[in-house]
Amino acid sequence: xxxxxxxxxxxxxxxxxxxxxxxxxxxxxxxxxxxxxxxxxxxxxxxxxxxxxxxxxxxxxxxxxxxxxxxxxxxxxxxxxxxxxxxxxxxxxxxxxxxxxxxxxxxxxxxxxxxxxxxxxxxxxxxxxxxxxxxxxxxxxxxxxxxxxxxxxxxxxxxxxxxxxxxxxxxxxxxxxxxxxxxxxxxxxxxxxxxxxxxxxxxxxxxxxxxxxxxxxxxxxxxxxxxxxxxxxxxxxxxxxxxxxxxxxxxxxxxxxxxxxxxxxxxxxxxxxxxxxxxxxxxxxxxxxxxxxxxxxxxxxxxxxxxxxxxxxxxxxxxxxxxxxxxxxxxxxxxxxxxxxxxxxxxxxxxxxxxxxxxxxxxxxxxxxxxxxxxxxx
Amino acid sequence: xxxxxxxxxxxxxxxxxxxxxxxxxxxxxxxxxxxxxxxxxxxxxxxxxxxxxxxxxxxxxxxxxxxxxxxxxxxxxxxxxxxxxxxxxxxxxxxxxxxxxxxxxxxxxxxxxxxxxxxxxxxxxxxxxxxxxxxxxxxxxxxxxxxxxxxxxxxxxxxxxxxxxxxxxxxxxxxxxxxxxxxxxxxxxxxxxxxxxxxxxxxxxxxxxxxxxxxxxxxxxxxxxxxxxxxxxxxxxxxxxxxxxxxxxxxxxxxxxxxxxxxxxxxxxxxxxxxxxxxxxxxxxxxxxxxxxxxxxxxxxxxxxx
Lengths: 378, 306
Ligand SMILES: Nc1ncnc2c1ncn2[C@@H]1O[C@H](COP(=O)(O)OP(=O)(O)OP(=O)(O)O)[C@@H](O)[C@H]1O
Ligand SMILES: [Mg+2]
Prior knowledge:
The complex is a heterodimer.
Chain A: E1 30-39, E2 42-52, E3 57-61, H1 68-76, E4 83-88, E5 91-92, H2 98-101, E6 104-106, H3 118-128, H4 133-146, H5 162-175, E7 180-184, H6 192-209, E8 212-217, H7 220-226, E9 229-234, E10 237-242, H8 244-249, H9 254-259, E11 264-270, E12 275-278, E13 281-284, E14 297-302, E15 307-311, E16 317-325, E17 328-335, E18 339-346, H10 347-350, E19 358-363, E20 369-371
Parallel strand pairs in A: 3-8, 3-9, 6-7, 7-8
Antiparallel strand pairs in A: 1-2, 1-4, 4-5, 9-10, 11-12, 11-14, 12-13, 14-20, 15-19, 16-17, 16-19, 17-18
Chain B: H1 7-10, H2 19-24, H3 26-58, H4 69-74, H5 77-110, H6 114-128, H7 132-143, H8 148-155, H9 170-194, H10 198-206, H11 211-240, H12 243-249, H13 256-265, H14 272-301
The structure holds adenosine-5'-triphosphate and magnesium ion.
């Protein structure tokens, strides 16, 4: 801890506003290399490697039990690795215990010390670093200001809402100028409105401080909206790590395609000359598709944007649901054989597409993927 | 005490009336009285009436007039020593048991073996309720002058009785008291210890706290209110314990409950009953003082819970 003035740039609102930094100024690189971890027979991490660039925010996304928390905790030093290494700023910290690592962590919920006020919670790490009392109170107050809770400084945790508690937890983690910020589903206990608001705020602060951040979530909207890059995990493995748009538009496999964003899985047959026949039309196979002999039954994965539904009394599909979402609406359709599909339509067209209306559905855009058929699951 | 009589009060749910009107509603008042009534009766019959009788008698001469003589006598000679002995014994036994019991509760809470849990809590339930003759004889048989453990230690060349230990001393009695106070502490503290969240310790560690500091700055302050409350229960429990001490000490150490017992049972000399009640009054005062001290400490320790 340096002298009180040279701490985080928290004066943004007070001093002449500085422009938000385009490039991070103080982040460190985080490298996770070949991490393995089992719990009995459960393989929680199965060879995960990833690099977080200085100042970058990576969101880790995946279904429950896929190992996200385990990876985060391994970074924090709260969980041991069977194999693999964690490097921060180039040096291996795998052998260090949590209190030596100087990383900031925000837990899912209720991690504030219940016997301390908000400001004392924030000052806790500074107290451990023997920062003198007035200096640490001042700095804690600055951080509460940063998260918009200056007025709640003297409240005890049980006197604050869940959202306020998480803000304090964020301020507490940031107070010690951690090298890396780790967040494990920090918003999952909050209601939707608070969640999106706080999510944007976390991103603003993260950019302001330029701190390297790993953000675990199972909410894809959250991941796609705040991350520089999104990592998708499944069964202890990192499936894909890329910018949000690429993960959405070019998923590397069917799992990622189905997990991020919504897709329809349509039965199809491989046709001649790198085509596939789906919903009575022949379309080109995506380039990524492995070669299949002609006539092989396959599934085609398509985004709602690549499907068109229009009212047609002779159509094979029937509308089962409709949700208006501003300019575009989403229509859920059931096709013969119980196949479910979702299509986006322009707001005006959606009016004619109420539940029960017969529709014709066709693939108008490029499919994401062609995979082996799977009929049982939804 | 807090279960039986007040249960009637909880069984009556509040009606949907506005609070302002409800308070003045006579039926409502009656129902409140019905709820609290049994408890008040209980309190009056078994606490207030006997205490009042003790206090009155403490200031009565054998002829029935007012006197300070009993109080004066109860604060001199063997009786004053008995207070010293009782306070010392209860304080040592309670404090030692409170600390050990908390450590056991913490160890128990951090192991996730359900069978061990059930075994220990059941065992504690039994041990915490063991007292009187059986307990005294168990200890005489194990670490008495010729107890099994004593004999075994002598065979190894270390007879504790040659090194200043005696079961029939204050220290020996303190050990016996710990036998039921530690399990009581475990039972009382376990819920509080189980309410400690792992995240608090992990958050503290992430902020730079070593294990010792995690306990010092988070675990102990969070447990403090429950610990103080339990300590007070243990102290009063030890302070009032009679049967075990009576068997073990045979009058060799003065303790207030034993002095009272011998005064009440003894040859009916004039004024003995009043002297016993004066000692009883002193015990009530000690408990009140401890209670007040507890309330003051608790106000500080539990500031964050309100
Ligand atoms: N301490 C542990 N003991 C035993 N198994 C564990 C332990 N911690 C995690 N696991 C197992 O390891 C796997 C990965 O767990 P992890 O908590 O990392 O998942 P996650 O991706 O964070 O899931 P969620 O979204 O539900 O939080 C799970 O199958 C879990 O049951
Ligand atoms: Mg998790």
